[in-house]
Recover the amino acids of this structure.
């Protein structure tokens, strides 16, 4: 089932791309993450140019986030005021990320930078997740529960001026904190094609101190608009969005997410987090290995 990707300028097995999307959708349903942080590396491993992989993954994350936002809206799990501030920051970050993307592309370093960012980001997140999961498993076996963390925003957030009251999140903090978080996420989304949920959710909990019942829904709300704007920016500036590739990924991810959600209801959350941490670290290790050895083809093509 060969399918031609017009922007990537190569033929791929369409069934494999659908299966890649299904795998990331499965992980999304099981672990509550967008899956974009694994979609791009898996496509790079398959041979898709990193620029096309990152740009097309952002469009897939947009489609996958829509149903999630509707589901959380129905149960009142979205802080629209907080989400609006982070969306504004995300749009600023997209502009900055676009400038960086074009600059690195002109310098011929964009593929290398995307790979390095993934190694650093996935390695850090995977290590933290593994440490937390192992501590939780040991606590379960010993019968001594891990002390619950008090919901409190970071001292640096408390020092910022011009406080607003975010009623839905139960916070009284400066809007500069979520704005800066949105800017950072926008830059990473533009450069890496990730939704940012696996960074955004811990930051909203441990830095902003948001209420847990609105964190996931608000994160998805921000991701929806930021990835939408990222896709448009890539389409207008880098011309790296391959709609055929994105459609195949989305087809697989929608199905995989449903299966993953059903599986997650039966499995232990602590063990699921440990499995996800191992997967993330394996992907980071594979990308680090790819940076260290000489490829068969020294020169690669990227769209103008």
């Amino acid at each position: 089932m060969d399918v031609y990707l017009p922007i990537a300028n190569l033929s791929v097995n369409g069934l494999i791309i659908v299966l890649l999307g299904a795998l990331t959708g499965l992980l999304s349903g099981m672990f509550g993450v967008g899956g974009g942080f694994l979609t791009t590396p898996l496509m790079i491993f398959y041979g898709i140019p990193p620029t096309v992989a990152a740009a097309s993954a952002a469009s897939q994350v947009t489609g996958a986030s829509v149903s999630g936002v509707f589901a959380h809206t129905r149960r009142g799990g979205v802080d629209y005021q907080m989400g609006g501030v982070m969306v504004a920051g995300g749009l600023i970050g997209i502009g900055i990320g676009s400038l960086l993307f074009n600059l690195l592309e002109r310098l011929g370093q964009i593929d290398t930078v995307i790979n390095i960012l993934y190694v650093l980001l996935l390695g850090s997140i995977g290590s933290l997740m593994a440490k937390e999961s192992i501590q939780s498993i040991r606590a379960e076996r010993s019968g001594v529960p891990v002390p619950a963390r008090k919901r409190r925003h970071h001292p640096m957030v408390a020092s910022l001026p011009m406080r607003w009251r975010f009623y839905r999140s139960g916070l009284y903090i400066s809007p500069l904190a979520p704005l800066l978080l949105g800017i950072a996420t926008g830059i990473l989304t533009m450069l890496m094609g990730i939704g940012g949920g696996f960074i955004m959710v811990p930051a909203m909990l441990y830095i902003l101190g948001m209420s847990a019942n609105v964190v996931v829904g608000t994160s998805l709300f921000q991701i929806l608009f930021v990835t939408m704007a990222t896709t448009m920016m890539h389409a207008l500036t880098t011309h790296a969005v391959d709609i055929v590739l994105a459609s195949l990924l989305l087809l697989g991810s929608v199905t995989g997410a449903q299966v993953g959600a059903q599986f997650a209801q039966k499995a232990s959350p602590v063990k699921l987090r440990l499995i996800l941490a191992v997967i993330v670290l394996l992907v980071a290790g594979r990308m680090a290995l790819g940076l260290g050895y000489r490829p068969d083809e020294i020169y690669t093509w990227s769209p103008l």
The mean pLDDT is 77.
